[in-house]
Every structure is written in C-alpha cells, then in structure tokens.
Amino acid sequence: MTRKYRPQTTQIHHPYRAPAEFEAVPPGVFKASTVLFPSVAALRQREWRDKSAYTYGLHGTPTTFTLEARLADLEGGRHTVLAPSGLSALALVNLALLQPGDTVVLPDNAYGPSKDLARHWLQQWGVQHRLYDPMDLEDAQRALRGGATLMWVEAPGSVTMEFPDVPALVALGKAQGATVALDNTWGAGLAFAPFETGIDVSMHALTKFPSGGADVLMGSVVTRDDRLHDRLQQTHMRLGLGVGANDVEAILRGLPTMALRYAAQDRTARTLAQWMLDQPGVVQVLHPALAGSPGHAHWSALCDQAAGLFSVVFDASIPAAKVDAWIDQLQCFGIGYSWGGPMSLAVPYDLSTMRKQHPWGQGRVVRLAIGLEDVEDLQADLKQAWSCLV
Ligand SMILES: *Cc1c(COP(=O)(O)O)cnc(C)c1O
C-alpha cells in the first residue's frame, strides 16, 4: 500500500472509515470538542441551537442529545438542558430567568445550597429572595405578594421531608405571574408526573437516581415551553456548562434500571421507617408515605411511590454525642451525602441551624438514604447499634 502521508500524519488523517451503522443495545459514546464541517459554507450555515446537526462539543453530541431526549420523556417535557451537577442545573435556572430587581421565592425547607445561592450570590447581583413555609399556603401567598419572577417548589422538602400541596403552590405562583420551577430530584420522574402539577421547569439532580452508582455528578433542566427552553439554552451556552461524554454514558446506563431500583429502595425504606417508629428514643420518623408524617395527605393525592429516603427525630434527652456514636456504630450505612446509590447512607443534621421554624423539638435528626442492600441486614444493623443510643 502506498501511503499518502508520513506515518505521524496518517494517524490523524487515516483513510479508513468504519461502516456507519452499528446497532447495539447501548447508544454510542461520542466525544468531541471540535465537530468537523464538510465545507466553509456548511460552517457558516449551521446554527448551534438547531439540534438537527452539530457545531461544537459544548452544544451537543449524539450522546448528549440521546440523554436529553430520554430525560424529556421521563419527566413528560419537551426539551432538556444538561449541566455538570444538580447544583449547577439549579443555578442555571436562576441565572437564566432572573435579572437585577427581580425576586425569587423559595421554600424554607429547600435544598440547603439552593438557599445559600440565593443568600450569597443572587443577592449580590441585585436579586431579592423571600422564603415561604411550604406547608402554609397563606405564607406562600405572603411571600409572593409584591411580585415574584421565579418560584421554587420542592417535594418533599430536604431533610424534614414535609410534602407540600404542589398543585396549590403552583397555582399561587402562576396567579402572581411567576415562573414555577420544581426541584424534582426526589420524585425523579417516577413518583409523580411533574408537569401535570402545572410547573414550568423541572430541575433534576441526575447524580441521585438516574445515575444510581454514586459515581457521577450531573443535572438536568426539562421544560415544555419553547421560549423558556431558549432562555435556558442561551444561558447554558454563555456559561459553557459542558458535560463529559463518559458521565453521560454512565447516566444512560443507569436509566433502564432506574424504576426498578427506585421501587426496591422505596420498599426497603418504608419497612425500615415503619420499624424505626417503634424503637425507644425515636420521637418521629419523617417519611411522606407514613401516615403521621407532615404532608402525608398531599403525598397520597399526588404520588404512588416514594424515594428511599427518610429522617429520624430522636428524643431531645439523647445527647448529640450518642446519636453520633450510633451512626459510627452502623456497619451497612456509610457516613456521607447524597442518595440513590447502591450503599445506604446516614447523615446527622441540626435543624435549629437550618430552619426558621422547627416544630420538631430540639432532638437530633438523622437522615437515612436507603441503598440496595438486603432489608434484613439493614434492619439488623440499625438494631445492633441501638445500645449506643439508649
Ligand atoms: C443532590 C441534590 C441537589 C444537587 O445535586 P448535585 O449533583 O449533588 O449538585 C439538588 N437538589 C436536591 C433535592 C438534591 O438532593
């Protein structure tokens, strides 16, 4: 064979082209910064926002387009924007939809870093925020009065797990002309159909259930409305929020088993939450599917499933050090943040520093995220550690 180029150049400009069709179960993983155009005319013509073709790795590859389409379908939306973490997806929604002089309203039990962003960052850029009690529609109305551009809803709230009346909150926000965004990480597109509640934007930490592996950080923002999507896509481009193809591949690999994992974790969590209720020193178990948990009726009206996540409130007479010792004594539970992965996790929280109001008393709170271990092993583990507590 006569070569056109010297060996070094041939490794880059090789004439071989593999056959185009390759049918396998998983979609291909395409990695690119540069996307090649067949001609200068094609380069000039191609519009980065038109997803019928490719312009640059940051604006999409066959791999990211495939994940976007599957997530839009999962959540019942039309468009998806991907971001490198759940938190960056959340920030993207704020930065795309808010301007100086605007107000954003957030539930008091919102994901902590979301409140932090409003307090320390949005504030600095001239965006005001107001917190509302998600279990009190009059308080939500108060927060919205005087105008709000964006309203966040979370169902249930972080750590304290109160399940709000989502359709009623959405209706209040829309009546005031706000765009309503839901942090749908807990529901994951499985527990309820987010857009059926009337929301405009569904943000999702793919880090949790879609990944399922405790190994990837990613977030998504799904919309039905073309104009909202345009604004999100523009902001996404201006901020350069790219995601890595291997990370996208990991999420694509998680999606087919997500519903099965979600259901299994739900089943185990409910068994353990119910069992915890009867243990000495436990004042309350916060899990929206339990009858005594705040917002249980709203959960029942909207959902037929729950994420494998609950919090336990201990009696105020049990010192924090004992609760810490109980967590340290657990063998099947890792100590760490996040959820939706294979390993069960435990994290202690001090509600007095997290909430404006805390009707849970002064006792320590431990959030348990249930993994995919056998339920009997988890229950035996929780039990063997109890001697540290009481
Ligand atoms: C984890 C989480 C996020 C943030 O996701 P990261 O990928 O960890 O940045 C946002 N909202 C909720 C409710 C979460 O649980």
List the secondary-structure elements in sequence, H or E.
Answer: HHHEHEHEHEHEEEHHEHEHEEEH
Number of helices: 12
Widest sheet: strand order? 1-7-6-5-4-2-3
Largest sheet: 7 strands, mixed
Average pLDDT, rounded to a whole number, is 95
Distance between the termini: 81 Å
Basic shape: globular
Percent helix, as a range, is 25-40%
Which ions, cofactors or small ligands are bound in this entry? pyridoxal-5'-phosphate
Low-confidence stretches are none
- Strand portion, in percent? 15-25%
Provide the structure class.
alpha/beta
Q: From the alpha-carbon coordinates, what is the Rg to the nearest angstrom?
A: 23 Å
Number of strands: 12
Topology record:
Elements lengths: L6 H4 L29 H6 L16 H14 L3 E5 L2 H12 L5 E5 L4 H11 L5 E5 L4 H8 L5 E5 L11 H10 L3 E5 L17 E5 L13 E5 L2 H14 L5 H33 L4 E5 L9 H7 L6 E6 L5 H10 L3 E3 L8 E6 L15 E5 L5 H10 L6
Parallel strand pairs: 2-3, 2-4, 4-5, 5-6, 10-11
Antiparallel strand pairs: 1-7, 6-7, 8-9, 9-12, 11-12
Helix pairs in contact: 3-9, 4-5, 4-8, 6-7
The chain binds pyridoxal-5'-phosphate.
